[in-house]
Structures
1.
Amino acid sequence: MADGGKQQEPEQSGRVHQGRDAVFIGGEWRPAVGAERVDVLDPATEQVIGHVPAAGAQDVDAAVRAAREALPAWSATAPGRRAAVLAAARDLMAARRADIAATVAGELGAPLPFATAVHTDMPTAVMGTFADLAAEHPFEETVGTSRVFQEPVGVVGAITPWNYPLHQIVAKVAPALAAGCTVVLKPAEDTPLVAQLFAGILAEAGLPAGVFNLVTGFGPVAGQALVEHPGVDMVSFTGSTAVGRAIGAAAGGAVKRVALELGGKSANVILPGADLARAVNVGVANVFANSGQTCSAWTRMLVDAERYEEAVELAAAAAAKYRPGERLGPVVNAKQRERVRGYIRKGVEEGARIVAGGPEAPEALPTGYYVQGTVLADVAPESTVAQEEIFGPVLALIRYQDEEDALRIANGTVYGLAGAVWGPDDETAVAFARRMDTGQVDINGGRFNVRAPFGGYKQSGVGRELGAHGLAEYLQTKSLQF
Ligand code: NAP
Ligand code: MG
């Protein structure tokens, strides 16, 4: 989703938000009904840095009721007024940049420059795009003898993951609010602190009570209660395909609208005639950014047989620059670390050759959930590490024979979220990209665009986030005939 390794930001001294022992419902911070808490760890130090409530079904019910109560007034608020609140939120996010970055660096373990440039500045920019879209969007049009209105879907239950904690929240909450919906958010248990900061920012921006509500807690408890609540009109989820499948089934059973942003195993296709060194270097940076915990990461690099060994050498050299504890942060928790190391071992069992990194703990880092930046060569397209989402700093290099072979391999997974094509010119790369079964493709190093629709083909999801397409997810149409 964002390419990494940009170390251009100065050191900042923000404060890590340590958590409030409260949920945010109906415009106020109040204790959760139960006493259970979620401890938040810093993955780099393995120390507890804060805690938040583990909300239960009663808290979720109170939050949904508050959102329903706030819906009539907020949905009737002029789009220009909604835009002004979102613009104020964007300005407050910019003003709190150092605190947001320090908090995400703390709870996710992201190196501070990346936490600032990507985890903070990107969602701030996204908030700005929805402030603009709320003001610009034509919520009404004429179709022959009809007037067609785009109206908010209603109460949105948003469930988000930990990998881009604030970005995933803003990518749902900002368009929902722009559309006139009200929201209950259940953020990931690993990264709830920045969600609390964000709730405070929305309140300070002038969002009316009940329009946005925050219930922290565990997925199978608070998350499931939110999905199943009859007062929720739409569920918007980002996370694993396994949980997404269950949420889609539950929402479908209740005939609720559902948006799913799920996993990926995206292909980085380097065609003959492309600038190999650039394609490989950008490709490695793309996979290792955020310690490989990016749903849209180009985790499969496809290179033609003739230049394959050269690409392997380039990738190994690029990977060696990502020292764990410096440019490469830890992964989010101990379970994820073991999962990623298990995949590296599995790759070797299935015949891959390790050319950088490996499953062992990085030297001289006894503490922290670190995994070595790993490059696997000679990966068979059908093997586990070429098919399943690893969600760690692991790149699989795959050899192809000709363009048709490359296309077959690129399209040969259940996923279709993102990808890249490098060719001798844009035209050649575009022709290949148009045949890929995937929602986004970066052409010859094209950069992430926060206004472009983002979302998956096949089992990578349902629906699109960001920009005008992202706004449309939260709208339904009504036509009046004259
Ligand atoms: P996950 O379990 O799908 O979690 C995503 C969100 O859903 C979290 O807020 C989670 O709560 C919640 N959740 C979990 N079970 C739920 C349920 N039964 N009902 C409602 N909500 C539920 O993902 P994860 O465990 O954090 O990560 C596992 C794997 O998912 C990763 O290794 C990666 O492959 C993939 N993943 C993909 C993305 C993506 O952007 N596509 C993002 C993150 C992870 P808790 O935080 O309490 O679990
Ligand atoms: Mg989970």
2.
Amino acid sequence: MLKKSFFLFGTTAMLVSCAGGGAEQLASPDGNVQLSFELSKDGTPTYSVKFDDEEIIKPSTLGFILKDAAPMTSGFKVEKITRESGDETWAPVWGENDSIRDHYNGMTVQLTQQAGDTLRKLDIQFRVYDDGAAFRYIFPDQETKTFVIADELSQMAMGGDYTAWWIPGDYDTQEYEYTKSKLSEISSYAEKGKIENVSQTGFSPTGVQTSLMLKTPSGKYVNLHEAALVDYPAMHLNLDESNLTFTSWLTPSPDGTKATIDVPFKTPWRVVMLGEKATDILATNIIYNLNEPNALEDTSWIHPTKYMGVWWEMITGKSQWSYTDAENFDLATFDYSKAKPHGKHGANTANVKRYIDFAADNGFDELLIEGWNVGWEDWFGKEKDYVFDFVTPYPDFDIKELNDYAHKKGIKLMMHHETSGSIPNYEKHMDKAYDLMNQYGYDAVKSGYVGSILPKGENHYSQSSVRHYLNAIKKAADKKIMVNAHEAVRPTGLARTYPNLVGNESAMGTEYRNMSAAHETILPFTRLKGGPMDFTPGIFRMDIGSFVPGSNEHKKATVANQLGLYMTMYSPLQMAADLPEHYAEKMDAFQFIKDVPVDWSETRYIDAEPGEFIIVARKDKKSPNWFAGGITNEQARDTELKLDFLQPGKKYMATIYADAPDADYLKNPEAYVITKKEVTSADTLPIHMAQGGGFAISFFEE
Ligand code: NOJ
Ligand code: CA
């Protein structure tokens, strides 16, 4: 393809254009992405984006509605336009690649607006990359010191009736399955009740969450998300079906306003990722590039982590988080020594030791234990303020002995803090909770925000909740603690700045055992664009009833699919979620989970289509070894995997973990075959993926 010419700006040079008149153009370094900015006649800021000459975002307006003040939507004047460009390469603390190039052309439009006697200032900063475009608002220091934002009105007018993979708007959860439909069909799903729980919190039936994956009729891939969500509510997108235009829809605060900001202030970036191929969207690093560099001086204590957990046995109902059957009590006065244990408490010292033995024997770094602390009898759906103290173990959980035992065996325990949505209670106890972790040698916490957020009226994604999640991450960093937050706001690349944020959930993970097989082929295009997910793969026993009496649950996946997920769902924090006894039955397949790294020097997305399949190869950061893997939806697939990613001239021993010819995610999910073969970069391997299946391959250099 011919690259268009473009103006080359020095990496540090700032060019100042004259204000007024005509559209200002901003092209990506390769010229293929072109952004145009213009003030309409009435002074409304307007932009559009083209990719390969196709209008992806049609002229769209920008601005704000303020509480009790004139809107910041029109009547603007351009004071000055400054241009810049950047080209630098940075090394993430952990990641899919050991270096990331941040290469863009930028333009900041400085606007003023006369509101009565007050002159308001608003800058709009644009950046254009070879694989996308972004903008954010900057409120410079000015006469008005505080702005109360009733609504942000950032439009993204779609260039056509794109295909979308979407989840409905919701201020509290992203735990939905994706729907694939045309943009023009989104509202019909809500109306026909095809989607359960749409608009749990009263959100518009045409509202969707980001990251939103789209495909144009011409076959281009587009993705809308935000980057660097700090001190501001999370953004949804609300569609006007009459003109296929999205407008930002921020999560409200209890008083109905969206955000209160003190100048100077920068909003998160609004981002459009662009690709010729689906794999371009998987590979783009725009979201991380738009976040600030690492803010932590010492990162030596942050380590990629493979872990097991006393967890799946609770999720499946084999054991319980709680210790007794008591209910409706005050944690401050409840006397556990007088309560009768129900006998199904999973986090008891003997059971935890059994897990420590297995995890340590098989080279894991950590073991998560849920239900170790008092309060689990009386938390779910209770909306209690004081629900956990995060420091008092149950009588049958010997915190000192278990940590000592684990450390002697070379692994760490992972802490668990379920806040039950009571953010005020967690903030009150957080210092002591982290201190307890330091005291016993825990260096990672899985936190959770199940239930309605307190104080009442707050939402999971509102400005004050967003502040809390980052506050918890920063405080944890001060105490050298890594964070894996469940049910917190979906990530927006902040792990670049705070690399101790090693994981989030913020989507349906393995605990929803009945997802369609397409779900995991969509997540890397959507949820994972903001950062890694604690997806908790590695289920080897699909028939839950085979070990939980009375359960008729079946995990809809093959064993090879579960192995493939360690490759397709990148995360520096990966769990082997099933029970030790289930791995012990299939130690040959478990070998892949033992071998697979969680930190990479290089990643090559080989082929993919959202909702259908993903195939990827990655090189270990610490060795010359390569790994490959893939997953498919409910459709079986056969393909040829070219091994040209391997280093030429070297020989590798490939171990191929594949679906058996008769494997099927519903009827025969545990059938797999493992073969070994010596290969070089000149070879090609035939790959078969069963319905709901996948594959995984390790390539050890010889
Ligand atoms: C929901 C989390 O996603 C799950 O992993 C956890 O076990 C429960 N909450 C209890 O905290
Ligand atoms: Ca969850």
